[in-house]
Structure formats: C-alpha cells, structure tokens
Specification:
By secondary structure, the protein is of the alpha+beta class. It has one domain. The chain is built from five helices and nine strands; from the N terminus they run αββαβββααββββα.
Length: 174
C-alpha cells in the first residue's frame, strides 16, 4: 500500500470514529431513579455516546438515595435525594460542594434552590409521616459545560420538574 493511500485511509478511519463519538446512539431515559421525567429535560445534560446505563446508588445509613447515569461506561450524572428535618438547611450543608461546582446562584424553585455551572440542588418543604421535613434533590454533572448559561438553564428546567415529582413519589406531601 502506498504511503498516500495509507494516509487517506487513516484519515477516513479517524473521521468515521470522530463522527460516531459526537452522536448520541442511545435514547434518553424516561425516568430518573424511578421517577418519571420527560426525556427532553434530561437529554441536554447527557453527553454524546454509544451506550447508556442507569444504576441505583446508596449512601451510608440509607438516608440518601439516588442513581447514577453512565454513558460509555463513564459516570456522567449523579442524582441524590434525601429527606431531612425541617431545621436543617441543606443548601448550607452542601455549600462547599456547590461552590466547587461553579458559582452557585439562587433559583426560584421549590422552597429554595441553587444552580451552579455543573450542579443543581433544590428542596421543598413537606410533611412526611405527620412531621415537617425538607425533601432535597441534587444533580451533579461530570462533563464541564461548553456554554455555562445554557447548562444552567438546562439544570434549572430539569430540577424544577424533577423536585415535585420526586417529592410526591417519596410520599412527602406539601
């Protein structure tokens, strides 16, 4: 094989591989941690790839539940939910993590929320088994955004829809 022909073949193979890596070969799921969501809200948070898996996660003590989403066997999104007493300020508890996620700003979602460059956290006041509680949801995105403002809007849309659905599924009523 001539050197020119080998170069052209290698370029074509690289172009084909790059094209595949940029596409989304999987469908966005219709649920997050068992809570129904519109795939259109989740799709902008997921990167291109060929394979997708969602798996449950559990933190120590079982007070925090959630799930992770992997694209091409790499964890891209992590979701957590927790039920805390009404006197706990979950945004204060996670303030350092939110700062590391990039410039958290207040959002008018639920009782209170913060949207950062690569994370969102919101909570709603509710009653659980007759006691006042706060139901907290978090989403953490691994891949840095190419457009920070767009990512923040995507995170805000997602968590605004997800919080009330997850809260209801957990049996924490308003």
């Amino acid at each position: 094989m001539s050197r020119r022909r080998a170069t052209v073949l290698a370029a074509l193979l690289l172009a084909g591989t790059a094209g595949c890596a940029q596409g989304r070969e999987y469908a966005a799921p219709g649920d997050v941690c068992g809570v129904t969501v519109r795939p259109a809200l989740l799709k902008p948070l997921l990167p291109p790839g060929e394979s997708f898996e969602q798996g449950e996660t559990r933190e120590a003590g079982g007070d925090i539940t959630g799930c992770g989403m992997e694209v091409d066997k790499r964890r891209e999104l992590t979701f957590q939910a927790s039920l805390v007493t009404a006197d706990v300020d979950p945004l204060q508890v996670k303030s350092d993590s939110l700062l590391r996620a990039g410039n958290p700003r207040r959002a008018d979602i639920g009782s209170d929320a913060r949207i950062a460059d690569s994370a969102a956290m919101a909570y709603g006041a509710c009653t659980y088994k007759g006691e006042p509680r706060r139901y907290v949801v978090e989403v953490w995105v691994r891949t840095p955004p190419t457009d920070v403002d767009e990512r923040r809007e995507d995170l805000a849309r997602f968590i605004a829809a997800y919080l009330p659905a997850a809260q209801e599924a957990a049996g924490c009523t308003s």
